[in-house]
Amino acid sequence: MVAVARIMNATLVVPQLDKRSFWKDSSTFSDIFDELHFIESLKRDVKIVKELPKNLEAVPRARKHFTSWSGVGYYEEMKQLWKEYQVIHVAKSDSRLANNNLPLDIQRLRCRALYHALRFSPPIESLGKKLVERLRTRGGRYIALHLRYEKDMLSFTGCTYGLTDAESEELRIMRETTNHWKVKEINSREQRIGGFCPLTPKEVGIFLRALGYPPSTLIYIAAGEIYGGNTSLSELMSYFPNIVFKEELATKEELEAFTGHASQTAALDYIISIESDVFVPSYSGNMARTVEGHRRYLGHRKTINPDRKGLVKIFDKLETGQLKEGSSYSFLVRQMHENRQGAPRKRKGPMQGIKGRARFRTEESFYENPYPECICSSKKRPE
């Protein structure tokens, strides 16, 4: 939205955050980010105000859902709205700008906004750094595992593999009663075969062991409450017992201010994930993609992105006895992920054979991989 405001020559009001999600978090922008730093850092690019000026509160406003993945031409046309309105209320702001074919200055502005202007609030920044230091004292190197095995994600994706009938039914009811989720009936088996499900904790354990990580590996779980609790985690912990949660790293007093604020605790996970030696997301959601892109920007730090569709085939062969854990199995997994570890590469364009606006949905997200626009091609670390 910073880039959109620049294109439309508009003043940007500091955004209000979604409070309707599963987590029902009342956090404001300034609770999570350093608001003054955000405004000051971008003042040469976009004028930003904390709130709508009083004299504009009562004027008629355009409530607009901007079309997803739109380019400069679209927003030039949207300037027509200024003829009738002084205020445009953008109801949804995710994925409203194209990934590709934008002017270089706009792309670089997006990176300035994300990697420089957006800085976490001092309490989050301070505790996040402390937790990283405590992890380092435990084992030096660590993996940050973004284990997206949470109730809302499993319900949203319709993924019930390995769950009991009662758990599956609970997730189905949640999906049907969540109004803003469009898809209500989902075939769980098809989702899993297509690679659209988060890896289960057990599958993550099998995957990391196949990559050669020893049982002593220190793993930080970057996630909310895991669905099924210790029962779900037991098999992962049987492979890797050296697992740590933020609740173990921080004191109760340190976490007290963050209680009930999932966005703020997610920000702590973000800091710890950015600073990790290896980042592994079990699902390619918004946070996972943004962390990967940020790590690329900071020098292509190692991010192992599981090929979930390919792994499911291997997991099923293991389960039926067609394949056994060992050197052959490990070779298959390593070969599959040889080019999925965050090495420098240009952003992927649309999938072949898809036409019309639908092709934009298949492009790799700019925030997942801001190369080449925002990353120097030389060996020097980007500024």
> Termini distance?
23 Å
* SSE-based structural type: alpha/beta
**From N to C, what is the helix and strand string?**
HEHHEEHEHHEHHHHEHEHHHEHHHH
Cα-atom radius of gyration: 22 Å
CATH architecture title of the largest domain: 3-Layer(aba) Sandwich
Overall helicity: 40-55%
Please indicate the count of domains.
2
The CATH topology of the largest domain turns out to be Rossmann fold
Q: Total helix count?
A: 18
Percentage of residues in DSSP E strands: 5-15%
The biggest sheet amounts to:
4 strands, parallel
Query: Quick one: CATH class of the largest domain?
Result: Alpha Beta
The residue ranges in which pLDDT falls below 50 over 5 or more consecutive positions are 379-383
Describe the structure.
One of its GO terms (cellular component) is nucleus. The chain is an alpha/beta fold. It has 18 helices and 8 strands. It has 2 domains: 2-117, no CATH class; 122-149 and 198-343, Rossmann fold. A 4-stranded parallel β-sheet has the order 7-6-5-8. Helix 11 (229-239) links the parallel strand 6 and strand 7. Helix 3 (35-41) packs antiparallel against helix 5, helix 6 crosses helix 14 (262-275) and helix 7 crosses helix 8. The longest helix has 18 residues, at 122-139. The model is unreliable at 379-383 (pLDDT under 50).
